[in-house]
């Protein structure tokens, strides 16, 4: 998908998408005008795209919070240097 307008039209328009994600039409139209969906709609819109048989929306169409590059590098290095924990084993097994 190229942009938010094209994506919304592919799914049936603002009214249809708003109804499916539990939002008001005016709210969805405001997101359209802003050119970004809130990040909280990502999973729902991916599911709608799957139902419609189209590509999932690009993450760039959403207002995800981006971590500054310096912090991201630090976090990645910190995670890769630590010892595995019992919680990591539970995550691998799919338990909580």
Protein model, in words:
Helices cover 59% and strands 0% of the residues. It has 96 residues and is an all-alpha fold. Helix 2 packs across helix 3 (25-34). It is built from 6 helices and no strands. The protein starts with a helix and ends with a helix. 15% of the residues are buried. The model has no long low-confidence stretch (mean pLDDT 83). It is elongated, with a radius of gyration of 18 Å.
> Unreliable runs, pLDDT <50, ≥5 residues?
none
How many strand elements? 0
Judged by helices, strands and strand pairing, the structural class is mainly alpha
Question: Helix amount, in percent?
Answer: 55-70%
- Spatial shape: elongated
Q: How far apart, in Å, are the first and last alpha carbons?
A: 35 Å
Q: pLDDT average, as an integer?
A: 83
Counting copies of identical and different chains, the oligomeric state is single chain
How would a textbook summarize the main sheet? none
Q: Compute the number of helices.
A: 6
Rg calc: 18 Å
Order of helices and strands: HHHHHH
Q: How large is the share of residues in beta strands?
A: under 5%
